[in-house]
Amino acid sequence: MTGPDDNSSAPVASAPKLPRLRLRLSPAAEGHIRRGHPWVYESSVREQNREGEPGELAVVYDRQDRFLAAGLYDPQSVIRLRVLHAGAPLNLDLVWWGRHLESALQRRAALFGENTDGYRLINGESDGWPGLILDRYASTLVLKVYSAAWFAHLELVLGLLVARFPAFRVVLRLSRNIQEWAAQRGFTDGQTLVGDEPDGPVIFQEYGLSFEADVVRGQKTGFFLDQRENRRIVGSMVEKLVSQGDGRRVLNAFSFSGGFSVASARSGAAEVISVDISRHALDSSERNFALNHALVGVARCFHRPVQADVFDWLSEAGGEPFDFIVLDPPSLARRETEREGALRAYSRLSEQAIRKLRPGGVLMAASCSAHVSAEDFFEAVRMVARRSKRSWKELRTTRHAPDHHATFTEAEYLKAIYLMVE
Is the distance from CB of 190 to CB of 217 less than 8 angstroms? Predict the structure, then answer.
């Protein structure tokens, strides 16, 4: 992968060298790149000198014929170009790529201590690696690819990772939209690219808690690493409630593998109910409790997994009120047309949860729907609190964890709000 003036990308040595793939864009797209946006859509390409192959390094020139950017070309995607570099021309050689990787790693260097070895190392476009994610789980790296453009450079990427992490396993995960294309080239979702295949879930540490990650078949790259900081916050708030004589009952709705449940148990919750529609997820939550049984709080906590649709369960379940409720549903708006329906669903969930909180109880409501803005989501939850006729106080809001930082609007998806209700 070389710079904008290198014509060494010809596939056959004896064939005439192809000219560098050159693109010209609409004025609006030029402006977006200058402001740091990492995508060029198909509809923004006004001119190109020839057809391109997935993974070719294409160069963008502006209306004055000046170098604007270079990126990975993908003719199969509506995101036609994923920008690697913008500004002054330079060679994207192996040294550049090594420094590029190290830059992403150094952003995380001071974030975690020895008791945390599960976190994101490369967050796609926001780290300058468009369409590529790299997560760490102990000594396993999970490389998730969202664009066919990366397969032309997979050997380069693996070489960098092996040099930087010599004793680590590397597992490949594929976005659904490229799985068929990748299979035709010998790559499958969950394939081990470096090292021995995992013989089961990988165990990693998060602030001293042990969790399992299904890196081969699990959602995302095997675990919801993006909620790590919210799990820490929930744990600290439960601990505070317990110290005041409260915080004994916690509800983790849409619990998945029980991350919030285990964090609450360690902090002293006497009872945690994990509700999820997936039996597989609930089984994982029980294994995560077992992994942490040596911790006093976890050993003392009564954990009750409940397989149910959360919407139905919240509307029907009775019993004692809860001291803390976590609402962390999957994305409820996968496209813009689902946005209004998602906001209604978030409102309904929050309304049901507030009814089940004791006086002084805390609600943490989260959204991972990129099509629902943080402002709209927060206001939807606040509106429900106002309508409840109960006194309430907003404790805090959170966005992306620092290893999941977002540098452009389309990358922003995660938000959470904490309310105390009297």
Answer: yes
- Pairwise CA distance, residues 210 & 244, whole Å: 27
How is residue 208 annotated by DSSP?
T
Q: What is the CATH number of domain 22-86?
A: 2.30.130.10
Owner of token pair 């790693």: 105
Q: Token pair of 203, please?
A: 């165990």
**Sequence spans of domains, the chain:** 22-86, 94-213, 225-421
Question: Among all chains, which residue has been given the structure tokens 């409820």?
Answer: 332
Helix (H) or strand (E) holding 304: strand 302-307
Q: Decide if domain 225-421 falls under CATH 3.40.50.150.
A: yes
Amino acid at 229: E
Q: DSSP assignment, residue 411?
A: G
d(CA 296, CA 304): 18
Would you call 298 helix, strand, or coil by DSSP?
helix
Please name the fold of domain 94-213. Answer: Transcription Regulator spoIIAA (3.30.750)
The pLDDT tens digits along the chain (422 residues) read 444 444 444 344 445 688 999 999 999 999 999 999 999 999 999 999 999 999 999 999 999 999 999 999 999 999 999 999 999 999 999 999 999 999 999 999 999 999 999 999 999 999 999 999 999 999 999 999 999 999 999 999 999 999 999 999 999 999 999 999 999 999 999 999 999 999 999 999 999 999 999 999 999 999 999 999 999 999 999 999 999 987 799 999 999 999 999 999 999 999 999 999 999 999 999 999 999 999 999 999 999 999 999 999 999 877 899 999 999 999 998 889 999 999 999 999 999 999 999 999 999 999 999 999 999 999 999 999 999 999 999 999 999 999 999 999 999 999 999 999 99
Read off the tokens for 205.
């540490």
DSSP 45-100: EEEESS---TT-EEEEE-TTS-EEEEEEE-TTSSEEEEEEEESS-----HHHHHHH
Q: What is the 3-state secondary structure (H, E, C) of 94-147?
A: HHHHHHHHHHHHHHHCCCCCCCCCEEEEEEHHHHCCCCEEEEEECCEEEEEECC
